[in-house]
Amino acid sequence: MAALGDSPTNIWLTPESLRVLAHPLRSRLLSQLRIGGPATATQLATALSTNTGATSYHLRKLESVGLVEDTGEGEGKRRLWRASTEAHSWYPSDFAGDEDSETALNWLSHDYARHFGEQYDKWLNVSMTWPAEWQDACGSSDSMVLVTSEQLREMRDEIHEVVARYRRVGQGNPRARRIAAYTFLYPLDLERPPATDSRS
């Protein structure tokens, strides 16, 4: 999840768009377009080690729910695709009681966790080749906080605001590099789920 609400940089998932996105190739296609910029189905197929026919089909499925779009700049039948926004968001409660959507969300959440692990491993494998100041600035940390659900939402929203403020602060600076900023918030006391309580 990223910035909250629909905006030029963010789209809010609906049950339909969630179910379309919850697919191994579609999830990777959207990520590739966001990271690599506009590309044809052939270029995407090469990058993701799949075939052009399947790639074109799944791009059209993503287009049908507004997650990707044709730039209109392709030549002939070679459509040039781009992600329609930089991010997408959701609340799990948006899909409560919809078994198909809940199943799709469970798969997608696990897929994102796996994807994070894969990408962070790639960084760790090459990190020693980067300048020391970049190694020092990157990294990971973990902390424990004792909060109510309301306080956790406030903390999460503040983190999102900080990330949004820095989203393009390095634009135009040749020393700037794109950095992935992941946020995972989850309970440590998994065996003690709280009762539903409006007092949070």
From TrEMBL:
Family matches, as InterPro entries: ArsR-like_HTH (IPR011991), HTH_ArsR_DNA-bd_dom (IPR001845), HTH_MetalResp_TranReg (IPR051081), WH-like_DNA-bd_sf (IPR036388), WH_DNA-bd_sf (IPR036390)
Signal peptide: none
Ranges in a coiled coil: none
Gene3D superfamilies assigned: Winged helix-like DNA-binding domain superfamily/Winged helix DNA-binding domain (1.10.10.10)
Domain HTH arsR-type: 16-96
UniProt key word DNA repair: no
Record key words, sorted: DNA-binding, Transcription, Transcription regulation
SUPFAM superfamilies referenced in this protein's UniProt entry, alphabetically: Winged helix' DNA-binding domain
SMART domains from the UniProt entry: HTH_ARSR
Protein name, per record: Helix-turn-helix domain-containing protein
Organism: Intrasporangium calvum
